[in-house]
Input
Amino acid sequence: MQSSNSALPRFVARANEMTTMAQSVSTSVTRRNVVAGLAVTAAPIGVLTAADDANAQSAQTMPEKSLYDRLGGVFAIAAVVDHFSDAVVKNPIVGQKSKNPQLREWHTNNLGRLPGLKFMRTLWVCSISGGPFQYTATRPGKTTLGLEEAHRNLRISPAEFDEVAAELGRTLDFFKVPKREKGEVLSAFASHKDEVTAGYVAAKPR
Output
């Protein structure tokens, strides 16, 4: 009985020692699993970050589409010009009922030239918007796209020019041209205002 009693403390101590070792091993394994899990998780994040950087660099190096392309090319531009040209003829300020006798005359007695004018206007817009077509004026101005000589005899006033621009804006809205592209078209047109109104300015009494 004494031998059995003396062995019991040793057994308990041994059991406690094994429990402590098991807990240490479990903790070590758990820590290794966490580290391994973090490593596995971090790897895809690094790959995705590299992919995002590559896509960003690709987007930066890819050239932006020209206004011509964003408008839809020559067929879309021709449709806009066709609608716009017909609207100008009917416009009460710059068309057949205009107070400007030169504009009234042109839009009443020269409509046989309207198809050719639509063609020339289409070429002009295609050229100024970065398209592959070259505009060659029948009455060349100071620049390739200059409009002063083509409009000199019409004596278009600044107010009449603004009404033509407004008609162009309404046409672009009719075709649901996006805001950015609409702004660029109107800005390009407005940049030639001094050329288009040169005949009026020159004829105006000083």
User: Anything to note?
Assistant: Residues 54 and 60 are 10 Å apart (CA to CA). Confidence is low (pLDDT under 50) at residues 25-43. The radius of gyration is 39 Å.
